Amino acid sequence: MTTCGHCGTSSVDLHDSRKGAPYKSLWSTYNNMRNRCYRENIPNFVDYGGRGIKVCDEWRLSYSAFKKWAVENGYDYQLSIKEQSLDRIDVDGDYCPENCRWVDMKTQGRNKRNTVYILFNNEYTPLIEVAEKVNIPYKTLHKRYISGVRGDNLIAPIDKFVQKLKKYSIGDKMMTVREISQKYNISEPAVRQKIFKNTLNELERNKRK
């Protein structure tokens, strides 16, 4: 058995680079890990090597060592990439045995620098987890969040949320129920009652008197 002097990889392990090899996915994971830390010409270098994140010498110099760690720590070549992904526990730390684990994509998605946390049931919880608990698509909640929506409105059921944002014509303006309630100093149920009876503009006429 020979060993590659460049990366410390044995001739046996080099078979993993071939199409159809059982550990082809692991080989790709290894090379992607090194590339994003050391190849400045790839798009995501800025989020890894550009932030000073490195691969420990043990792994950087030897795919064989990385493969040994992977197999001993739960890697299963029969699982898909969605079912297992190389994850750094400390997102600001390096790729090394002490800081890495195998997780599914959902878990990894919650362990990123840009993960959004909100106060939910008196605990700061990842927005993606809140989405699962309130049964609203994550993309919907995230869109609300980046639009500045907070509190109960953020996790309101879609139909109620749309209703809260709906605007009604009063005078020469378009306003939501809440805005009308605040401007004319009446309760929101009273506003909705006037909308139902089509008497909303009475508020503006009465204000002018």
Structural class: alpha+beta
Task: Give the tally of β-strands.
Answer: 6
Number of helical segments with 4 or more residues: 10
C-alpha end-to-end distance: 97 Å
Helix content: 40-55%
Strand order of the largest sheet: 1-2
User: How many distinct domains?
Assistant: 3
Beta-strand content estimate = 5-15%
SSE topology:
Layout: H1 24-38, H2 57-60, H3 63-72, E1 85-88, E2 100-103, H4 105-109, E3 117-120, E4 123-126, H5 127-134, H6 138-146, H7 158-165, E5 168-170, E6 173-175, H8 177-184, H9 188-197, H10 202-208
Antiparallel strand pairs: 1-2, 3-4, 5-6
Description:
By secondary structure, the protein is of the alpha+beta class. It has 3 domains: 13-109, no CATH class; 117-162, no CATH class; 166-208, no CATH class. Helix content is 40%, strand content 11%. The chain contains 10 helices and 6 strands; from the N terminus they run H-H-H-E-E-H-E-E-H-H-H-E-E-H-H-H. A two-stranded antiparallel ribbon has the order 1-2. A two-stranded antiparallel ribbon has the order 3-4. It has a two-stranded antiparallel ribbon with strand order 5-6. Helix 8 (177-184) crosses helix 9 (188-197). The radius of gyration is 27 Å and the shape is elongated. The N and C termini lie far apart (97 Å).
